[in-house]
Specification:
This protein is 30% helix and 28% strand.
Length: 214
């Protein structure tokens, strides 16, 4: 059996570098985070494959390429405070923890929030705060944020998230209908919001007060 570090390096070269991911810090973080440790036993054998995988509760851990491209769009330098909506397995939060000062991550499903928190603690990520809540409301007690990443799809970016993004901040989210979305990078600057539309994608729905009903 090939070792996990070897498979991770292969994942980075073949799935990320080969498709144009070039931020060296993002590549380094994805070489470092043990993706398999954020997965249930039944998904671990495929942990470094080029696909999203089930993590229970009808939810998924995103495809490595999608994690990389969304992370790259955040343009992290290391000093930022980041809000992630949709903790899921905790893997994306761990990648962000390598690249930012602090990560606040919000999940609505108690079982997933619990498992992710345990994995993050066991792996020693001390700069991640896990919250069980409706993430469409953001995390007002911890706002404002330099960066916000939404990892579930909605018809539009929830207003509370735009409000909780600080001046000069960047928000990245999948936006569209329930079946398919497009990644939007939103930059807040001088009271204006600039929107850049990127790759097409398919995410599970963002469910909550400012998201889908179910
Ligand atoms: N970032 C995750 C990871 O690294 O494993 C993958 C996220 S998964 C594609 C989407 C997650 O968003 C699911 O765990 C889902 O329960 C969660 N979610 C959906 N609506 C939410 C909401 N309103 N607040 C918080 N989490 C939500």
């Amino acid at each position: 059996m090939m070792d996990d570090e070897y498979l991770r390096n292969l994942m980075v070269e073949r799935q990320l570098v080969a498709r144009g991911i070039s931020d060296p810090r993002v590549l380094e973080a994805m070489r470092a985070v043990p993706r398999h440790r954020f997965m249930p036993e039944y998904s671990r054998k495929n942990a470094y494959e080029d696909m999203a995988l089930p993590i229970g509760q009808n939810q998924t851990i995103s495809q490595p390429y999608m994690v990389a491209i969304m992370t790259e769009l955040l343009r992290l330098s290391g000093s930022e405070r980041v809000l992630e909506i949709g903790t899921g397995s905790g893997y994306q939060a761990a990648v962000l923890a390598h690249l930012a000062r602090e990560v606040v991550t919000v999940e609505r499903i108690p079982e997933l929030a619990g498992t992710a928190q345990v994995a993050l603690r066991e792996l020693g990520y001390e700069n991640v705060i896990c919250i069980l809540s409706d993430g469409t409301l953001g995390a007002p007690d911890h706002a404002p944020f330099d960066r916000i990443l939404v990892t579930a799809g909605s018809s539009d970016v929830p207003i509370p998230l735009i409000d909780q993004l600080g001046e000069g901040g960047i928000l990245v989210a999948p936006v569209g209908d329930r079946a398919s979305q497009q990644i939007v990078q939103l930059i807040k600057s001088g009271g204006d919001i600039q929107k850049n539309y990127k790759t097409h994608c398919i995410f599970v729905p963002l469910i909550g007060r400012y998201g889908w009903n179910y």
